[in-house]
Amino acid sequence: MKIQFIGTGNMDSERFNACILVNDCILIDAPPGVGKTLLKNGFDIRKIKAILITHQHIDHYFDLPILIRELSNCHVPEIHILANQSLIDNFQTLMKLAFPDVYQEILQPIQIHFTVLKEYENYSLLNFHILSIPVIHGNLDSCFGFILKNNETSIGYSGDASYTKEIEYICKNCNFIILDSTKSIGDRDHMGLNNIYDICKKYPQKTVFITHLSEQINTKKVKKYINLIIPTDNKLYKIKKNKESLF
Ligand SMILES: [Zn+2]
What we know:
With 247 residues, the chain is α/β, with parallel strands linked by helices. It has a single domain (2-246), classed as Metallo-beta-lactamase, Chain A, CATH 3.60.15.10. It is built from 8 helices and 15 strands. It has helices at residues 34-40, 58-61, 64-73, 85-89, 91-98, 103-107, 165-173, 193-202, and strands at 2-7, 19-22, 26-28, 50-52, 78-83, 111-116, 122-125, 128-135, 143-149, 154-157, 176-180, 207-211, 228-229, 235-240, 243-246. It has an 8-stranded mixed β-sheet. Strands 7-8-9-10-11-12-13 form a 7-stranded mixed β-sheet, with helices on one face. A hairpin with a 7-residue loop joins strand 8 (128-135) and strand 9. The protein binds zinc ion (ZN).
């Protein structure tokens, strides 16, 4: 499985906003500027077949109109969007706000398959089994993490989340875990390095990647655990069962 960290920062970070691309075809989160960033990195946007949105904060979904416009312009016939009910309900409005004059022309040629995310539901998509995990992110409703499995391995993605039993569930069930580590000390909004260290110690056989890093996190001072990886923007990893190798 290929995991590309397009962005690894939070909204205020110099790093690009957190989002990943899995096997070139599944984009998890669509932060502002992701379409341009992908183009700048020489990525063929037509390869994207599905977009999963973790939650409804601007730094996780606001490039959806740009991406849809791009895909429509490239004559991509269809795309899957998996998101919470509210975002899907408001998708048309979002497109209309973004492109009041041409949103119908953009939407007309492309078929968008919407899937409303439910808690602990399995979705089969593009040779992947995707499980939606409800997570707690402050007081925001309907936030999700994901477990993605294919015939090679399994990865977990927390999205923005505090440390709860649902995060434990992701850790137990995945070989590779990508976790929110916005803060030094975790709280109700986000996990922190203290939570990450606990997880690294508790699951020494699993590889933990941290993302959504804020300026508060000095990566040079992060404790060294053999199973802890701090990816940089645009870093690509190829993972197989329990091994990960840098491209
Ligand atoms: Zn958030």
